[in-house]
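Model: Ready when you are.
Researcher: Fold this.
Model:
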Amino acid sequence: MRSRYLLSLLFVFVGAMFLTACLPGTESQPAEQPSVPEQDESREQEAYPAPNDAYPAPPINPYPGVILGEDGGETTVFSASEIVPLSSDENLIKGSVFINESEVVMKESAPVGVGLVLKGDLPTPCNALRVVVSKPDDQGHIELEVYSVVDADKVCVQVLSPFETFVPIGGFSGGTYTVGINGETVAEFEIP
């Protein structure tokens, strides 16, 4: 008898839940969209000037921070201001970056604005990308130091994290230049 009573209560409860879900005015509300993190004003912006006539700007991404990769997976998109080394990086561990693709982008202006699109993988989703761009040497070689930083105390899934970023290199008025990443020459461009 007791089991019959509990079964009846269960049916009443399930029925009430069903009716409540079907009543007018109780439509489900769309999930709240996650807020976009605010820009860190303490970033050392002087290392990379803001895009202007001499510096090409990366394409506008309707979904800041994440794009859908060709294989259907997510790729993190870093803006030029997010890859600048910070003074707080000294508390983090320096790690590697795997560069899969690099492409020189030039904007016709005076001087010609040059940048580099980098695509690759970070060791984990917890690693942050950092890029330091040197000024051209006497032979016109521009070296990029590309690395990642990570908090040693952070527990993170051990899976590669794809990324894409645009690195402004500078404005150039003429000559032949080579671009290196971590000691390996990856591109050459000429400005008449």
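Researcher: Now this one.
Model:
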Amino acid sequence: MGFVISVAGKGGVGKTTIAALIIRELCGEDKPVLAVDADPNYNLGEALGLPVTSTIGAIREELMKTKAELPAGVSKHQLVEYQIRLALQEEDCFDLLTMGRQEGPGCYCYINSVLRSFIDAMVSKYDYIVIDNEAGLEHLSRRTTVGSDLLLIVSDTNPVSIKAAGRIARLADDMELKIRRKVLVLNQCEAPPSDQHFKLAGYDFHAAYHIRSDKSIQNLSRDSAPISNLNENTPAIEDIRHVLLPELKSH
């Protein structure tokens, strides 16, 4: 099993940018990386410079429509696995799996069961798996993907966002999710987290880090350019390294 990093947090705090920065850094280790975009409003592919061509959600909807019309000699299990493989987009240093929309009406129990078992088997082939979650922890709670070695709960410095980060951490505990370490990441913050931040969150995180504001990232976002275009020595890249180094060493 590879090292699984999940990125969660309130909407609009920069989860996808941080997930993309992490993937960019891990690619430098020349080890296989699986990027999973678990947000229905998927943007991870765009941040990585990879247009999304297929999603698990679209495949799941198509399978629901055609499940009674299987080709001769093809089981439902084989068909689901084949379709999921088609959704996997391969790049030189990472592969991308985009989950897409949630389920529509009807029972998706069988398809979701096959999906879980296939993805669990697939992630064992990667050294790193980075999951960009939707706002909150709904994706992990549905167990569509594996648990995590590291859960990065992202917040900006807004007290509302920091309180939401604490709620997400407590929700993970309440749901008894298999998460080894939960850490707080304050995005666009110029100094390390303080006691006041921890008090607002109301949760005893394993660690806390900060990512400084970075004009170069803002410029990339404005120009719809991928994270790979960033200069090596930008503040955000340096800060992401300060997050990853101790956490990967603790594994």
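Researcher: Key takeaway?
Model: The CA atoms of residues 14 and 110 lie 34 Å apart.
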